[in-house]
Design goal:
The protein is of the alpha+beta class. The chain contains four helices and eight strands.
């Protein structure tokens, strides 16, 4: 797979049907990943995931799979959603096996730079669950600042 961009340890590649088994293992791991994506417990099927990959590729959506450069192992996905007027929402999911290895801290600033430099974004925001202190800490470490909060979400942003 050809890298779109890279960091020291991560290759960012287009989403691919060949990675669907990895995607399914990640998003259907409810306790360690799926619940943090706001998903219910119902598993996503291969057909549903194939449709998602094909849709994202057809749209040219800014969504990438992250692969460990040293091994080629799947780390997770990162994307911009709902881009409007130079503002995009960042989303990231990392497999349970690759969490707590610094990949989020490495990937997020790279994706923000990509969004600002390549997509012309002037503001990137994200939402995190208030109980997800680990993610909030990583987002703060990457330069995001909280600008709002309610019972369901913590809203954070980086402004160019």
């Amino acid at each position: 797979m050809n890298s779109i961009f890279e960091t020291e340890n991560i290759s960012f590649v287009h989403v691919s049907e060949s990675l669907i088994p990895d995607y399914l293992a990640m998003v259907n791991d409810y306790d360690r990943v799926g619940r943090l994506l706001g998903r219910g417990r119902d598993p996503i099927s291969e057909e549903q995931d194939r449709w998602w990959v094909q849709k994202k590729l057809a749209e040219g959506a800014p969504v990438f799979s992250m692969l460990e450069k040293a091994t080629g192992a799947f780390i997770g996905n990162i994307e911009f959603m709902d881009i409007t007027d130079g503002v995009g929402e960042l989303g990231i999911a990392i497999t349970a096996q690759m969490q707590e290895k610094g990949y989020g801290t490495e990937a997020i600033p790279a994706m923000v730079r990509y969004g600002m430099d390549e997509l012309g974004l002037s503001r990137v925001y994200l939402k995190a669950f208030p109980f997800n202190a680990r993610a909030i800490h990583v987002y703060e470490k990457c330069g995001f600042r909280e600008y709002d909060r309610n019972d369901e979400d913590v809203f954070m942003e980086i402004v160019k």
